[in-house]
User: Which sequence fits this backbone?
């Protein structure tokens, strides 16, 4: 433990200006004077000195000021500390004085208080295996159950190839996200939007990244509402076949009611238990799904031919199938938030344990996705249901258990995905003296605001889920509209901008291939999914 610790606070909304090097020199003098005593200008304390330095960067104004409080780890090496200072991404806006304080500056205390309330004071103490089950929970969800249905439209060859290609491409983009988390020395980009702002600029970044991330997260939550309600209904039918039937809409409402209570949990760390349970459940019901299909065997007169339908309808169904597979690779939208819970030091940056956890998650992903997709399609062929568990009947107790496992999993996944949305909702509504009044709804921060905003979001996703309970079509639409950008090509675009690989090099070609394939998936599956939703809605009796 160091005898002395100093936190240097820098206002990042100040423009860098021509005097920044002089300010850097002043920093060094004040650090030495504070900790070594006297005026020792020009001398650097040895890294062995029992003194630890840390840097806090904050913005005093701007629409996302409270979100931009960045904190480094501790170091005894002044050279490393100066690298952190030199890498501050100033947002511009004037030549405001930089603040220096021993301990936390009084000027930062209110900002810290707001940030603590807003995030629930998340601690960076997670281990690598936390990232494994958080990523598994975020990625493996309802989408795995629709993979045999996607195979029915793509066929053995194209379906298997696209599934394998998606697995490899998204593993590469996951690696890119992990590497970019600390691409600027001394700064951790804890949210997708923070990294987007760094890559595309403070004005353009939020407009590029935030809509896509919201589509992914809101789309997931709507699908989870539908999945949870349908699986509860299936569980009840198998557990008590003679009981009075209950409408599917009511089951979705029951599932949504659970989240009115769970949505009040404060932050990412508080849902760790749900994430762990959800990760275990996902592996369990995926195993039951493919093992049940294997035990069921092939149905009579099974056919692997392409479904008989009009050319136009079949084309749109193929496009929708691409989106369904894309939906199955959903972890990128919260990857940076997961990595933000892991401690990082110059000796052991967070990317090392995070990548270890991501590899573990993708291994679990593979042993869930490929058997379910291939064995499910082998058993039912073109007649497979869009949720393969719905096609299984025996053994009854096992299939009923699998449906209940799906319910537990999507409960955890819903909370995992919504954590960042809840932060944004509350931040958009609370009153902050540092911002213009017309930019906020001016609600005081507290339990009442959390209760209202989070409950309103649950009501919104619940209403959409009850109104449009088209599982397969929703997967295809949101898979293309939201998941293709965040998982397939946005990380590659940011990698090209930030890392600037040599033109026509292997990395350059890989990134451009990922971008082009991702764009095709986004356009095709969005069109296919939307068309299928419209078609199915025309013959569906709502709220039944």
Assistant:
């Amino acid at each position: 433990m160091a005898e002395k610790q100093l936190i240097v606070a820098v206002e990042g909304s100040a423009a860098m200006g021509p005097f920044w090097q002089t300010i850097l020199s002043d920093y060094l003098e004040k650090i030495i004077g504070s900790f070594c005593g006297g005026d020792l200008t020009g001398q650097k304390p040895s890294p062995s000195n029992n003194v630890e330095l840390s840097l806090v960067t904050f913005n005093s104004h701007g629409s996302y000021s409270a979100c931009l409080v960045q904190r480094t780890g501790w170091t005894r090496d002044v050279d490393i500390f100066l690298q952190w200072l030199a890498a501050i991404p100033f947002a511009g806006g004037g030549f405001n004085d930089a603040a220096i304080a021993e301990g936390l500056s009084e000027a930062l205390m209110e900002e810290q208080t707001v940030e603590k309330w807003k995030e629930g004071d998340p601690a960076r103490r997670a281990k690598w295996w936390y990232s494994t089950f958080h990523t598994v929970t975020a990625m493996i969800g309802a989408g795995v159950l629709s993979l045999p249905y996607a195979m029915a439209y793509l066929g053995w060859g194209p379906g298997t190839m696209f599934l394998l290609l998606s697995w490899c491409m998204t593993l590469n983009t996951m690696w890119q996200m992990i590497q970019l988390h600390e691409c600027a020395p001394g700064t951790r980009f804890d949210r997708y939007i923070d990294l987007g702002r760094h890559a595309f600029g403070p004005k353009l970044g939020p407009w590029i990244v935030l809509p896509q991330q919201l589509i992914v997260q809101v789309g997931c939550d709507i699908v989870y509402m539908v999945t949870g309600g349908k699986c509860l209904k299936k569980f009840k039918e198998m557990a008590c076949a003679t009981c009075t039937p209950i409408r599917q809409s009511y089951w979705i409402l029951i599932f949504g009611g659970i989240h009115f209570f769970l949505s009040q949990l404060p932050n990412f760390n508080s849902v760790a238990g749900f994430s762990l349970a959800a990760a275990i459940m996902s592996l369990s019901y995926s195993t039951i799904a493919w093992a049940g299909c294997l035990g069921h065997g092939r149905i009579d007169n099974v056919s692997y031919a392409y479904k008989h339908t009009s050319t136009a309808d079949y084309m749109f169904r193929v496009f929708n199938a691409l989106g369904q597979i894309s939906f199955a690779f959903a972890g990128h939208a919260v990857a940076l938030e997961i990595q933000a819970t892991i401690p990082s030091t110059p000796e052991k940056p967070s990317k090392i344990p995070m990548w270890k956890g991501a590899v573990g998650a993708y291994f679990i992903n593979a042993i869930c996705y490929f058997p379910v997709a291939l064995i499910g399609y082998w058993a039912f062929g073109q007649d497979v249901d869009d949720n393969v568990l719905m096609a299984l009947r025996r053994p009854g107790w096992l299939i009923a258990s699998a449906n209940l496992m799906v319910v537990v999993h999507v409960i955890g996944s819903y909370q995992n995905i919504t954590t960042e949305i809840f932060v944004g909702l509350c931040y958009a509504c609370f009153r902050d003296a540092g911002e213009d009044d017309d930019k906020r709804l001016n609600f005081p921060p507290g339990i009442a605001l959390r209760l209202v905003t989070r409950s309103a979001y649950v009501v919104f996703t619940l209403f959409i889920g009850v109104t449009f309970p088209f599982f397969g079509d929703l997967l295809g639409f949101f898979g293309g509209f939201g998941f293709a950008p965040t998982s397939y090509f946005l990380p590659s675009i940011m990698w090209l901008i930030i890392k600037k690989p040599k033109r026509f090099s292997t990395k350059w070609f890989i990134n451009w291939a990922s971008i082009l394939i991702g764009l095709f998936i986004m356009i095709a599956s969005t069109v296919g999914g939307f068309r299928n939703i419209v078609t199915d809605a025309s013959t569906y009796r709502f709220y039944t």
Remarks:
- The longest helix spans residues 204-239.
- Residues 38-48, 61-68, 91-122, 431-439 have pLDDT under 50 and may be disordered.
